[in-house]
Amino acid sequence: MIELVVVVVVVVVVVVVVVVVVVEVVVVVEVVVVTVALLVVVVVEEVVVVIITVVVVVVVVVVVVVVVS
Fold first, then answer.
1. Cβ-defined contacts of 61-69 (< 8 Å, 24+)
2. What is the DSSP letter of 69?
3. What is the DSSP code (8-state) at residue 1?
4. What is the residue-level pLDDT of the chain in tens, covering all 69 positions?
5. Which UniProt keywords apply (predicted)?
6. How far is CA 46 from the centre of its chain?
C-alpha cells in the first residue's frame, strides 16, 4: 500500500513538473515569436518609408528638371 502511494505521488510530481516546464517553454517561444514579429514589422515600415521617400525625391527632381528645361 505504501509503495502505491509513493508511486502515485512520484507520478503526480513528475506530471506537474512536466506541465510547468512545457508551459514555460511555450511562454518563452510566444515571447520570442512576438518580439521577432514586431521587429519585422518595424523594419518593413522603415523600408517602406525609405522607398516612398526615395520615390518622392526622384519624382520631384524629374519634375524640376523637366520644368526647368
1. none
2. -
3. -
4. 888 889 999 999 999 999 999 999 999 999 999 999 999 999 999 999 999 999 999 999 999 999 998
5. Membrane, Transmembrane, Transmembrane helix
6. 17
Buried b (16+ CB within 10 A) or exposed e, 36-69: eeeeeeeeeeeeeeeeeeeeeeeeeeeeeeeeee
Grid cell, residue 47, equals: 523600408
C-alpha cell at 41: 514589422
What is the C-alpha to C-alpha distance for residues 69 and 64, in angstroms, rounded to an integer? 8
∠ CA 21-26-13, nearest 5°, is 20
